[in-house]
Amino acid sequence: MSEIINAPLPRQVADAYVDALVALDPITGTYLGVPESARLLPDFSPTGQQALAELSRATLDRLAEAEARPGADSDAERRCARLLRERLTADLAIHESGEHLRAISNLFSPLHFVRDSFTLMPTETAEHWADIAARLRAVPDSLAGYRVSLATGLEQGLPGGPRQVSTVIEQLGQWIGTDGGWFADFTREGPAELRTELDAAVAGATGALVALRDWLRDSYAPGIAGAPDVVGRDRYRRWARQWNGADLDLDEAYGYGWAEYHRIHAEMRTEAAKILPDATPWEVLHHLDEHGAAIEGAEETRVWLQKLMDDTIAALDGTHFELADRIKQVESMLAPPGSAAAPYYTAPSIDFSRPGRTWLPTMGETRFAVYDLVTTWYHEGVPGHHLQLAQWTHVADQLSRYQATVGQVSANCEGWALYAERLMDELGYLTDAERRLGYLDAQMMRSLRVIVDIGMHLELEIPEHSPFHPGERWTPELAQEFVDLHSGRPSDYVESELVRYLGMPGQAIGYKLGERAWLAGRDAARAAHGDSFDAKKWHMAALSQGSLGLDDLVAELAAL
Fold first, then answer.
1. What angle is formed at CA 435 by the lines to CA 434 and CA 441, rounded to 5 degrees?
2. Are residues 436 and 292 in the same domain?
3. Same domain as 292, residue 195
4. pTM of the predicted structure, to 2 decimals
5. Residue 535 β-bridge partners
6. Domain stops at, among 229, 249, 270
7. Mean pLDDT for the stretch of residues 357-371
8. Are 213 and 260 in a shared domain?
9. For FRET with 464, which of 204, 220, 384, 510 sits at 20 to 30 Å CA-CA?
10. How far apart are CA 122 and CA 14, in angstroms?
C-alpha cells in the first residue's frame, strides 16, 4: 500500500515522459524550447525507434500504478491519464506495424523534421549560431540512421509510397540547390567569427542531403517499383486512430463527407452568383485570382497577414475570448523554399521565448488573393491554431506539459481551427462575397479531404448521387481530378495536397470530423445552460483543458 501512496500521479508520469522523450528526440526539445537539445538530432535508425517504443511501454506501466494512487480520480488527473494512455497505445500500434520503417512523405517525415528544426532555433547571439553549427554537424548521422530504417523496411517488404519518394527526391533537389543550397541560405547571416565553422558544417549537412537523394533515386525507388500509394483499410484504421484519437466508423465518415459536399456546394453557388451570376463557384474563384482583391509581393503579404492577426486579436479579446498578453504575440513568416504547398503554424516554446508563428509557402508566386488568405489565417493564426496552442502552453502548469505539447491530437487541433473559421463567419467577419466564397471554398476542400482520403485509401465506390464518376472506385488519379474540379486552388497545390494525403493517411479527415465534434460539444453545452450559456467563458474553458481525442472531446466540451 505504501508503494501505491508514494507513486506519482498521472500528470507527473506524463511530464516525466516528456523529459525522457526530449532526451531521445532533441527535435521535440527544440519545439519545446529546451536549450540542451539545440546541438543534437534524433537517432532515426531502427535502434532509435525501438528506444522510443520501450519508453512508451515503460510509461504505460508507470501510468497503471499512478492511476491506483489516491487523488488520481480528479478531473485533471483523469483527463491526463486517458490522453496519455490513448496516445501511447496508438503510437505503439503504429510502431509495431513497422510504419517507422517506411516513414517517407512530402511533409511528415524524419527528413522534414530535421530541416524544420533549424527554422525554430534562435539566431540572436554567437552562441546560438554555435548551436546551429553543432546541429548541422549532426545531420549526416541522423539522416544515415533514417536511411537504415528505410532500407530495413525494404528488406522486410514494407515499402514507402512511390509518389512520396519521387516528391521527396524533387524536394531534396530544391534544398540542395545550385548555389550552396538551403542550409547555406539559412546560415548566411551567421557571425563572421563562425563563418569557417558554419561553412564546413553546411557542406557536411548538404552532402548528407545529396547522399540521401542519390540513394533514394538509385536504390530505394527501384526497390519499391509497383508498390501501392494507398494503404488499405487495416493500415488506415491504425493511422486514423493516431491522427484522430478515435476508432472511427470510416463508412459513416465517408458518407458525412459527401453530405457536407452537397450542403457546401449549394452555399457556394449562392455566393458565387453575387459576383458572376452565370458562372460556377470555381469559375468565379479563378476570376478572383486574376481580378479580385489581392496583395502584391511576398514580403508585403507577410506584413498584411501580420496586421490581419493583430487586428483580429484586438477585436476578439475581451468580447469572445479573454487572452493573456503573451498569447497576443504571433509572428507572420514566409516558409522556406521546398516546403509543401499548404500554409502551417508552429506553436510557441513552453516559456514563450519563441512566439507562435504562421508560415506562408510562396511556391514562387508574388500575388496572393485576399479571398484565400483571410480564412486561411483565421485557421492558422487567430482565432485558430495560435489561440488554441498558445493557450495550452499558457496553462501548461495547470495541466501537464504533456497535455499542452507533445500529447496533442491532430483532429482536435485541426477541428478547432476549422471551427474558428466558422466562428468568424458566424460573428459577421465574412460578409463580403469574395471572402465568404473563399471561406466556403476552404470548407469544401476539407469535405473533399474526407471523401478522397477515405475513398482512395480504402478504394471505395463513388456513390450514385455524386456528379463525378458515380459507380467507379476511387484511385489517386480520380481523386486529383475530383479535387481539381472542386477547388479554387492551382493544380500544383492540389497535386501537393494529394501526395500529402497519400503519405499521411487519416490525417486529412480530422479537420471536418474535428469541427463536427467541436460544434456538437458547443451545442450540447448551450442546451445544458440555456439562456445562461456564456460563449466567451465556454471558449476559454474549452481552450484550457488541453488535448483530447475525438472519443472524449464532445463529452468533455458538453460538460463545461
1. 90
2. yes
3. no
4. 0.92
5. none
6. 229
7. 93
8. no
9. 510
10. 27
